[in-house]
Structures are given as C-alpha cells and as structure tokens.
Amino acid sequence: MIYEWIVSVLLLLGGILILIGSIGLVKMPDFFMRLHGPTKATTLGMACLLIAAMIYFSATHASYSFKEILISIFLLITAPISGYVLIKSAIHHKLDMRKDTQGVDKIEKD
C-alpha cells in the first residue's frame, strides 16, 4: 500500500531530524546556540512522527485521529514559547556567551 511507504518515509525523516536536533543540543558551544537544536529540528521531527501516526491510524482504523492533531497543536505552540522564555531568562541572568554569537552588542547595551 502507498500509505505504508509514506508512513515509513515520514518516520525515517522524523527520526533523522530528532537525531540532528539532539546532536546539536550536545555539540553547540553555548546556551544560546544550543537552544536551536531542540526548538527547530526536534520540533520538525516530532511533527513528521505525528503526521505519520495520523496517516497510519486514519488508514487502518478508517477514522480520523484527533489525538495526534491535538498533540501537534500543543507541540507547535509550546516549543517556540518555551524557547523564548529560556532565552529571556538567560539574558536576564547575564549568561555568558561566545564572542561570535550574534546580537552581543545589543545585549551588552541593555
């Protein structure tokens, strides 16, 4: 069936994106750069996994999957907001950053 191929590709793509986000979390040099891994790549990876789950359960159970839609909405709303709050907290506490991190001049003036 064609939906099995689509689900397989989405699962592989989601797994690769989550792996890239996790590696970025570990390998980036400072907190401000490290936050991009989970908020960007991992969110896209989870979206691929949830879309794959929606397609699979819609095709096998002949009904729509509202749980995955609600999880997707919750994830896509909360991930950017939590990243923003973490960055604002780090700026407020004057967390050290690398010299080549963009926006250093603006933060130092405040």
Automatic annotation (TrEMBL):
The keyword Protein biosynthesis is annotated on this UniProt entry: no
Record's keyword terms, sorted: Membrane, Transmembrane, Transmembrane helix
Xref: Pfam families: PhaG_MnhG_YufB (PF03334)
Coiled coil: none
GO molecular function: sodium:proton antiporter activity
Membrane-spanning parts: 6-26, 38-57, 69-87
PANTHER family found in the cross-reference section: ANTIPORTER SUBUNIT MNHG2-RELATED (PTHR34703)
Protein's recorded name: Cation:proton antiporter
Organism: Catenovulum maritimum
